[in-house]
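Bug report (template v2)

What were you trying to do?
Predict the complex of my protein with zinc ion.

What happened?
Run completed; filing so the output is reviewed.

Input:
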Amino acid sequence: MLGRLSRFMRIMGYDTMYPNLEVADSEIIEMCRNESRILVSRDRQICLRYKNSIRINSDIIQDQIVQICSYEKPMKENLFTRCTVCNGVLIPGNCNCKEEFDPRKADSVSHCPDCGKCYWPGTHSESIVKFLSDLGIFNQ
Ligand SMILES: [Zn+2]
């Protein structure tokens, strides 16, 4: 179960598919092969079956993020460019959501064209940036 890691990967801008539990290993491998994806898993068996895979060993989210980023450095400009729910690429503006947000920040609202979720900067995103920066994963 790497759901938390997959959300952080999306926050960092990595194109991240997260198959549900019912999807068979062979289907996951097939999808990775067809779409030239890197397979990220805790499962040794599935990683042995697919060459381009990263096996996650740690249960600690910080270690998991550092491990992923050691393969491909994240770039700060890619932060918050993907929907954490569905992996859609966010588009600036056009927020039709009913959630309350500070209208002074309306210029920096973005939305997911696939699921409609809206995003805007706030204390939550600031704390995520600090959390990730403290891991030393970004090129300074
Ligand atoms: Zn979405």
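What did the reviewer find?
Strands lie at 39-41, 53-55, 91-92, 110-111, 118-119. The pocket of zinc ion is lined by residues 83, 85-86, 88, 112, 114-115, 117 (CB under 6 Å).
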